[in-house]
């Protein structure tokens, strides 16, 4: 952007120098013509007014239109009047003394400033006639002089016309270049503003992403704590309470204590794996159907309720997040059955279909009214269904709960059948 600004500054500086030349050079030409006229007067002069008075009048004419009113340069009518008057004064001076040809050539320069379009060539031709007259020593007085005058005029017209033509082309190119530079500068300015806006937006997005990441991690840890520590501690408490009731029976007491110790170790291991965001241990060494069978077996042993697992369809490896979601859903559903259902039988069905995998957990327990679920985040089980629904929804699945008092409960989790390794 700095280079564009430098180009704009250079163009402005060049235009300023051109304006200075337009304003200063007429007086230089007048001074040179007056000095030479005074030093070597022309033998014949046709002016009716002494050249010093004409020179002062010309200086005032130029000063009024060019120096004192520079904004008039955009007014074509006034500039045309100025140029006609300039030629008239130049003609009178050249006829009085050919030395004022040094001033007459200003007509070439000011034709570009004062005239527009083809009128510039008219001004150049008129100035070339004046300059040829001055170069020939005044008005022709013989055929040979006329021939010399004609050659000088044609030469001046040709040279000045060519220079004017190239000047017009250059002026047009400069105008286009200036417009392009200004457009580029404006584009760079807008680009800089856009970049600043993007920087602010980027910072805002980073902040939102960081906050979203923190929220997501909190939700993940809440789910993992519920699925590992909370359920493990609930099982440990249940086993210890059972051990307390069986203190008079040594074998039963030892069995409940051993189960509590096993639950504590498993919960500790799962908690550590949750902190490291590692898959559950059951899925590290076994496929999902086997992990469900192992889970159901452990749960059946601890709760002394029969649990059966069946698989339909073509069992195949799924994306790790999908398998974790189904395993945690089964774990939560079984935990709810153990705490609330008082069931005598539980069935888990894992159905592999083309695009969907469904896990159904059914029990023949007491059931409940789904419209009267406990409030979430209370320790009576309401938070478990909330966590289960969050997990299933997070992977693009759906969770359905069907139950009625005395009619058992059915929990169905349907998730996309993303293959193993899919994003």
Automatic annotation (TrEMBL):
Region annotation Disordered: where it falls in the sequence: 364-383, 401-423
Pfam families referenced in this protein's UniProt entry, alphabetically: HATPase_c, HisKA_3
Keywords: 4Fe-4S, Coiled coil, Cytoplasm, Iron, Iron-sulfur, Kinase, Membrane, Metal-binding, Transferase, Transmembrane, Transmembrane helix, Two-component regulatory system
Signal peptide per UniProt: none
InterPro entries per the UniProt record, alphabetical: HATPase_C_sf (IPR036890), HATPase_dom (IPR003594), His_kinase_dom (IPR005467), Sensor_HK_TwoCompSys (IPR050482), Sig_transdc_His_kin-like_C (IPR004358), Sig_transdc_His_kin_sub3_dim/P (IPR011712), Sig_transdc_His_kinase_ChrS (IPR017205)
Molecular function terms, GO-annotated: 4 iron, 4 sulfur cluster binding; metal ion binding; phosphorelay sensor kinase activity; protein dimerization activity
Segments forming a coiled coil: 170-204
Cofactor(s) annotated in UniProt: [4Fe-4S] cluster
E.C. numbers: 2.7.13.3
Cellular compartments annotated: Cytoplasm
Record keyword Phosphoprotein present: no
Keyword Membrane in record: yes
Cellular-component GO terms for this entry: cytoplasm; membrane
Transmembrane segments: 20-40, 52-69, 81-109, 146-169
Histidine kinase domain segment(s): 326-419
UniProt main location, coarse: cytoplasm
Source organism, top-level taxon: Bacteria
Reaction catalysed by this enzyme: ATP + protein L-histidine = ADP + protein N-phospho-L-histidine
Function: Member of the two-component regulatory system NreB/NreC involved in the control of dissimilatory nitrate/nitrite reduction in response to oxygen. NreB functions as a direct oxygen sensor histidine kinase which is autophosphorylated, in the absence of oxygen, probably at the conserved histidine residue, and transfers its phosphate group probably to a conserved aspartate residue of NreC. NreB/NreC activates the expression of the nitrate (narGHJI) and nitrite (nir) reductase operons, as well as the putative nitrate transporter gene narT.
Listed name of the protein: Oxygen sensor histidine kinase NreB
Lineage of source species: Bacteria, Bacillati, Actinomycetota, Actinomycetes, Micromonosporales
